[in-house]
UniProtKB/TrEMBL annotation:
Protein name: DUF1697 domain-containing protein
Superkingdom of source: Bacteria
SUPFAM superfamilies with a match to the protein in the record: SP0830-like
Family matches, as Pfam families: DUF1697
Length: 181
């Protein structure tokens, strides 16, 4: 069994209320094992037969829609993919961990879509932006709450759904995934 993390978008915000105990129960009924939630904002550690993380994301999204009537995006990453997302973030180590984020994306935007995002945001704020593998890296410099670079703005320009986590959370989740190794 391989270990994975699912980052669920829009959970316990915007009216999508979901008890983590109910989510764990629903996932365990679908052959998802060793389910553990980390904070109530939609971070799920789990074990599953090894398979591409994209397909597992689709499975999570289906369960959320079928069982809870929540239309959500689930970005599933293996331990190695999560480590690569942390190590590959060019702002990690140069910005504050709570301000440096990885937006996990439902697909891989084209170079033209990324260029459109950068051009559309030009002059709107101090954020630093870089593309990644099914990810967008952002240093929010002055804080997410003060930023005009919102998830909706990003999704419109890149043409895919996203859910973001900061470096502090990602490191904590990776450490939990590596416990017992």
């Amino acid at each position: 069994m391989a270990r994975y993390v699912a980052f669920l978008g829009s959970i316990n915000v915007g009216g999508n209320r979901l008890l983590m105990a109910d989510l764990r129960h629903a996932l365990e009924r679908e052959d998802i094992e060793e389910v553990e939630t980390v904070v109530a904002s939609g971070n799920v550690l789990f074990s599953h037969d090894e398979r591409p993380s994209q397909g597992l994301g689709d499975k999570f999204a289906y369960i959320l829609r079928d069982r809870f009537d929540i239309d959500s995006f689930a970005a599933v990453r293996s331990r190695e993919e999560l480590r690569a997302a942390i190590d590959g973030n060019p702002f990690h180590g140069t910005g504050e961990d709570k301000q440096v984020h990885t937006h996990f994306l439902s697909g891989m935007p084209s170079e033209a879509q990324f260029a459109d995002l950068v051009a559309a945001y030009e002059g709107r704020g101090p954020e630093r932006i870089a593309p990644g593998d099914r990810a967008l890296y952002v240093d929010y410099v002055e804080g997410v709450g003060n930023s005009r670079l919102t998830g909706a703005f990003i999704e419109r320009r890149l043409g895919c759904r996203s859910t973001a986590r900061n470096m502090t959370s990602l490191k904590r989740i990776l450490a939990k995934m590596e416990e017992g190794d």
